[in-house]
Design brief:
alpha/beta; ABC transporter transmembrane region fold; Rossmann fold; four-stranded antiparallel β-sheet; 12 strands; elongated
């Protein structure tokens, strides 16, 4: 919790007022037993109605003042805690937005959601309790003991025994509960993770009739969480009657001992009643302190988890002295680039060197896991290279502001991602001043205008979260239109045509050739037909460049490319591409190792 206290600094003024009001509340509560003792000793025993009325009105006014202070303390505490939670939540979300994919791999999405919601809510709840009780309870407890000692020093041992027993009880419960609180938050994470996975993959689950298996998986985690919650709640159930037993035992002891002292004439009745109230206030104060000690550990676990996010430094940062090269078309150059994921034993990419120039299309092809997507993800600095350099317009991307670098790039990811909103809002997402004409033009180039116009509200039609109400091909076309509407210098298409039929893809490629003239285009593709016309094709195998050149050149010189092409194209299509590119020993369909 201490790590997060610095975020309370903006609330210094309200905190000072809270302390003053808390002191007023404590003073009012401590004054009441003294007034009651005076009423009993001087008013009732002394048979003076004036004393009764005088102290009665004082008790009423002091009670009213104490009540107003208590209401004000509760209001201010709630305001401070809510504002604190809002600020920490904003800071945590901003920090997560700055995370690179390296940090996202460290924290799961489900865990980040839990930390930014459930954990911060736990902290807010405990903070309200701390602000209301953390100052009041110790102050009330200490002063109540002092006031009780002044009234009847010989009975103070009863209070000391009750408080000691209370401390022992809480210590035992604390030792048992603390490890469970840590596990409890991890189980909340796990439940969120399982729930998110099941809901995200619901179509696949239904397609394979695995609903019962997934239900059992959810039930298992849910039962673990329920069992842990029940265990913690049982501790609370045991603690409450045990504490009430201690309080009642203390009251009986006070009455028993007080009666003897009254009978002996060494203690007045009013003083015994006041002592009893002070004793109850002291024990109740220590009870509140005990409750704080029980609840704070769980909040501490949550605070530690939130602090872990806030203290995590992003591995990809803007340089202190950034460079902003002039926009010259978006020339991209890889110079002996090597990259490995964190914790990976082998590099994903090794000694990659090539140049992608404006006005040309550079395509990447290779088997699954060859590093194609990883390579293009290095350009917008989703990851940083381990060795070598990536230059955009002649400047190392690590020397540019991330916002400047990414403003030059139109990126379409492997999995087309749409946001809740309208079609127009999704297409114009990367363009701050995009009008209807620009959005419509981008949709037309992306071959999306036809299906958009068939929608009931056309460009104002709603898109569900993650594009759940449109097909995979429609999502890809809208994502491509979004990149086109941005009008960047560099286009990156990471296997972005996989959900399109051949006719739509052919029309899209033709429209893109005209739209991207003078721009740098990088395409990751699985289909040879998608990249056959590219000016440069780079073939990747096991993270290394196995060959680069045009389609015809690679058919002649690169066995890996020849194998991929022969698995997708017929012999006639290969011969049509370039009969000279077919080796003398090429006959029939090439498959497997024979193609190499």
């Amino acid at each position: 919790m201490r790590k997060l206290f610095k975020y309370l600094i903006p609330y210094a003024g309200p905190l000072i007022l809270l302390v003053a009001l808390t002191y007023g509340q404590v003073a009012a509560n401590l004054a009441l037993p003294d007034y009651m003792a005076s009423i009993v000793n001087r008013g009732i025993v002394g048979q003076s109605s004036g004393i009764i009325y005088h102290y009665g009105w004082l008790m009423l006014l002091v009670t009213l003042a104490g009540g107003l202070c208590m209401v004000a303390v509760g209001y201010i505490a709630s305001r401070i805690a809510a504002g604190f939670a809002q600020r920490v939540r904003d800071l945590a979300f901003s920090k997560v937005e700055d995370f690179s994919l390296v940090e996202f791999n460290k924290f799961s999405t489900a865990s980040l959601i839990t930390r930014n919601t459930n954990d911060i809510q736990q902290i807010q709840t405990i903070l309200v309790m701390l602000l209301r009780l953390a100052l009041r309870a110790p102050l009330m407890g200490a002063l109540s003991i002092w006031k009780a000692y002044q009234l009847a020093p010989s009975m103070t041992w009863i209070m000391a025994a009750a408080v000691t027993a209370l401390i022992v009880l809480v210590s035992v419960l604390f030792a048992i509960a603390m490890p469970r609180f840590t596990k409890l938050q991890k189980l909340v994470d796990k439940l969120n993770l399982v729930t998110r996975e099941i809901l995200t993959g619901l179509r696949v689950i239904r397609a394979f009739n695995k609903e019962k298996i997934e239900e059992k998986k959810f039930e298992k985690v849910n039962e673990e969480l329920t069992g842990m919650n029940l265990f913690v709640n049982r501790l609370m159930v045991v603690m409450q009657p045990a504490m009430m037993l201690l309080m009642n035992a203390a009251m009986i002891a006070i009455v028993w001992m007080g009666a003897h002292y009254i009978d002996a004439g060494s203690l007045q009745i009013g003083n015994m009643l006041a002592f009893m109230q002070y004793a109850m206030q002291a024990i109740f104060s220590f009870l509140m302190i005990s409750m704080i000690f029980i609840m704070v550990p769980r909040a501490s676990v949550s605070a530690q988890r939130v602090a872990e996010v806030l203290e995590t430094e992003a591995t990809i940062k803007d340089p202190e002295k950034p460079l902003s090269p002039p926009k010259t078309g978006g020339r991209v150059e890889f110079k002996d680039v090597t990259f490995a994921y964190a914790g990976s034993e082998e590099p994903v990419l090794q000694h990659i060197s090539f140049v992608a120039v404006p006005g040309q299309t550079t395509a990447f092809v290779g088997s699954t896991g060859s590093g194609k997507s990883t390579l293009v993800n290095l350009i917008p600095r989703f990851y940083d290279v381990a060795e070598g350099e990536i230059l955009v317009d002649g400047t190392d991307v690590r020397n540019m502001l991330q916002s400047d670098l990414r403003s030059r790039i139109g990126y379409v990811s492997q999995k087309a991602m749409l946001f809740s909103g309208t079609v127009a809002e999704n297409i114009g997402y990367g363009r701050f001043n995009g009008g209807e004409q620009e959005i419509a033009h981008a949709a037309n180039v992306a071959q999306a205008s036809e299906f958009i116009n068939r929608l009931e509200q056309a460009y104002e039609s709603p898109i569900s979260q993650a594009g759940a109400n449109v097909s995979g091909g429609q999502k890809q076309r809208l994502a491509i239109a979004r990149a086109l509407a941005k009008e960047p210098e560099i286009y990156i298409f990471d296997d972005s045509f996989s959900a399109l039929d051949f006719k739509t893809e052919a029309a899209l490629r033709k429209a893109l050739q005209e739209e991207t003239k003078g721009k740098t285009v990088l395409i990751v593709a699985q289909r040879i037909s998608t990249i056959m016309q590219a000016e440069k094709i780079i073939v990747l195998e096991d993270g290394k460049i196995a060959g680069q050149g045009t389609h015809r050149e690679l058919l002649r010189s690169c066995g890996v490319y020849r194998e991929i092409a022969s698995s997708q194209l017929s012999e006639e299509e290969l011969c049509e591409a370039d009969s000279a590119s077919i080796p003398e020993n090429f006959s029939g369909q090439l498959t497997g190792k024979e193609a190499v």
